[in-house]
Amino acid sequence: MAWWWWWSEAVVVGGGTGGGSSGTVVSICVFTAVLCVCLVAGHLLEENKWVNESITALLIGCVVGAIIFLLSEGKNSRILRFDEQLFFIYVLPPIIFNAGFQVKKKQFFHNFLTIMSFGIFGVFISVAIVSTGCYWLFPKVGFGDLGAVDYLALGAIFSSTDTVCTLQVISQDETPRLYSLVFGEGVINDATSVVLFNAIKNLDITQLKGGVALKVISDFLYLFFTSTMLGVTIGLSTAYALKALYFGRHSTDREVALMALMAYLSYMLTEFLDLSGILTVFFCGIVMSHYAWHNVTESSRITTRHIFATLSFIAETFIFLYVGMDALDIDKWKTSETSFKTSLGIFGIIISLVLLGRAAFVFPLSIMSNYMSGSSEKAPITFNHQVVIWWAGLMRGAVSIALAYNQFTFSGVTSDPVHATIITSTIIVVFFTTLVFGFLTRPLISAILPHQHRQSTTPGTGGGGRSTGRNSPKDDFIMPFLSPDEEASGSGSGFLQAKRSISMLLERPVHTVHIYWRKFDDRFMRPIFGGPMERDRGNCY
Known about the structure:
Number of domains: 1
Distance between the termini: 58 Å
Mean pLDDT: 78
């Protein structure tokens, strides 16, 4: 049993933070081994009706944390200390980049306005409800020693969603639009929450009187659009370098390395400029998959798809395992001096506000989207789909915990009982929503969305094969602005063309913008940055 004693001394008692290089190496070895256990357990439970991989990793993290807690005789419960910098700098970028790189661009941009309304306006509505509710209700349960910025930060913390559980259940082939809405809103929601959180954190309430809301909104818009344009710029630069220099003629490894490093550079450059790395790396991923991916060799295309997906998968598992182990950190619970009754009241208030804040924008914005789209544009968001979208955003994850640590701790540690209570309450909310709501996700969606026969979809609509561009008028509607005869003879006047274009824009706005974009993309963008033309295009959207 000497190895057991040595491991507990080097890792459990030292916590992997002060035991020197030996303790750090052992901590990493143990954590990696537990990660492997999570992967095996997730594989074995793949067909389970109630459990998914995120829940499995969370539960395994709790078990490992409990074992460490017992071995250390109550002194410790984690192998590594949760650090929001570690999370934001190393773990989150591959997840967000892969989300942009693998996204079905046609569905994403077809539903772009709805996704942005959910992900931006929805977050503002949720933040307002959660912040106001906490400010009003916390004192009623005996907890109210927080400042105005803290209450606003709580709104951003608990408005950040985690849609992983729902996305693992929804079929992208059977319900491509629903999948696109849930997926797209999840990414934009996280980005908006982080951007808004940073804008709130930089507020100086003492110097702002009536312009607090205006200041927050202006900072948000600056961060949002600047970060997006930086991501697009770096993605286009990478695509141009790959097309102009053609790395593949000498080494395919350089192609893959350049794409990966430029993606990470986009994130770190944004953090250096105090912008939003999430938005930058997400849109950088979209641009790279649209242009740069077509400028590399076939083997590099396959490699990049699998490497980025694998890194994202490992990072997601790492996060849930990390959160599970850190939840039993005894220091936070000892520092919090809140009674059980007050803690229960805080938990109930936060959960209620999360439910209310989510419903306050999902259903009204869905109705507004259906009204603005019109019957000829696309199928409406049904009430059952609205319930799924509402449910998908109820889970809270590592982003909420990371933001809470950022606001209420210093390097993962706090000696303030009030701040410790917020940290422990955040952990409880994350665990409850992930486990309880996560357990119920699969049976709920099975009941709400009964199995639909697979339609003969093409990959542009969420499947996986080749798109002809003509099989589905709803999804691949392409109408020339002038008839072939008019175009060939030049008899179509500018007035008639403008009239026809305006008529199309009013009747089918999304598809009309999409037509304009494809023409512009084929004529100006793809000849410079790469990618197949319209006549050769397969699964580009």
